[in-house]
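Contributing new complexes? Match this layout with magnesium ion.
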Amino acid sequence: MLYLELNEKNILIAAEQLSAGKLVAFPTETVYGLGCDAFNKAALAKVFEVKKRPRFDPLIIHIAALDTLEKLVDFSRLTQKAKHRLTILSRALWPGPLTLILPKLQIVPDIATGGLDTVAVRFPAHDGAIRLIKESSGAVAAPSANPFGYLSPTRAEHVREQLGVDVDIILDGGAADIGVESTVLDISAVSPRILRPGGLPRETVEAFIGPLQVEQVHSDETVNSPGQLKSHYAPRKDLYLHNSSEMRRLPFFPDDAYLFFERSSFKTFIENNKISTEIDNTNFFILSAEGDTREAAVRLFDTLHTIDALPVSNIHAERAPESGLGAAINDRLSRARAQARNVNK
Ligand code: AMP
Ligand code: MG
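Output block (do not edit by hand):
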């Protein structure tokens, strides 16, 4: 495994490796991806193997030019309405943290799409990622660069710790700007639907194409978006999710970690428990002092990685408000829960 700084020289080395069927972990604005050439079946199989990802869970194909859609998408199977939505959204919100589900052309390998006749496509808003994709085949399949089901990587170090030797190259471009995965949107249905809340707020998409439905079920049988399991994005510790008022009233267990959404909840909590100390790093974490969902999303996985490495027993986490990136934060926290893990057993 080569661990390289993200710069022009190393991007060219990595692009060559991608074209040769190797796996390259690279930064995007959402999280780090484990990339391979989207048309190389052997490389795609390796991605599933390295992540221990079930074959039914389709990958997102990353592009760096709108023309590439012609190599991936069967436009003849898009309704006029869907075509119109694709034009509007791709012009307005790409590059960006938005993944669109579109009818696939036969040449897109079935293994990339989990056997579905649709393909997930995204144009990432990250200069390094765009260069890498352009210099290789122009279409890079990349799930998040973590073992299946575990916390997503927002830094290159997370990838090195979790996948290490199984990856050919890791490009280190620093911490991800957004910190949660892309919003996955199906624009083909009569009313377009969010299959996974993510780095682009629902409100932003709605401003362009009107009201969206949001997929609520995260059962293993969900057919619309096969990877959306009830348990995912999870730390190794047991995580319990509380709404704000419950969180503020929790008793203090010295063996547990407390992940507050905002500072005011933490303050009430320490007052209620008559804890006089200032923040103790091993027990208390605040995602955003002022309760900003964007800042909280950036810090979410990074903080969970930190907590997971501490000698604490359980994690108590506070729900975010549902607006802005709060929906994505709550989605990830619900699936990180101990209860969600038990359901999947
Ligand atoms: P990840 O690559 O880990 O960010 O996850 C990508 C997710 O996108 C998958 O787990 C699916 O839930 C969703 N996805 C990818 N392709 C499709 C598709 N063709 N139809 C519906 N959902 C998809
Ligand atoms: Mg993932």
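Reviewers usually confirm one structural detail per submission. For this one: Residues 143-144, 152 surround magnesium ion (ligand 2) (CB under 6 Å).
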